[in-house]
Amino acid sequence: MTQTVTAAYGSIDKAVNAFDELVSEGYPREKLFLDKETSEVKVIVPEEAQPEAEEILNRHGPDEVWARPYEAS
């Protein structure tokens, strides 16, 4: 099952750094979303890749990280 992992950061700088690291680790940009208003990063990943994505997001000191099943709109 595909998951949407979201990390909320206290600053846009932390969010941008997390986003940039996901890109440099090979996550496709079309599966990433950076919300500059809320300083959140979202990444859409297969369930087996969720732990790695969460590890990368956690390296940048998020206030909160959560995952939920991906729902295509």
Q: Can you describe this structure?
A:
This protein is an alpha+beta fold and 73 residues long. The protein has one domain: Alpha-Beta Plaits (2-Layer Sandwich), CATH 3.30.70. It is 30% helix and 33% strand. The chain is built from 2 helices and 4 strands, in the order E-H-E-E-H-E. The protein has helices at residues 12-24, 50-58; strands spanning 2-8, 32-35, 40-46, 64-69. It has a 4-stranded antiparallel beta sheet with strand order 2-3-1-4, covered by helices on one side. Helix 1 (12-24) crosses helix 2. The chain is globular and about 30 Å long. The model has no long low-confidence stretch (mean pLDDT 97). This is SPOR domain-containing protein. It comes from Halomonas urmiana.
Mean pLDDT: 97
The CATH topology: Alpha-Beta Plaits
Task: Give, in spatial order, the strands making up the sheet with the most strands.
Answer: 2-3-1-4
CATH architecture: 2-Layer Sandwich
Shape: globular
Helix content: 25-40%
**Stretches with pLDDT under 50, minimum 5 residues:** none
* Class of secondary structure makeup: alpha+beta
Alpha carbon gap, first and last residue: 16 Å
Q: How large a portion of the residues is in β-strands, by DSSP E?
A: 25-35%
Q: How many domain modules? A: 1
Number of helices: 2
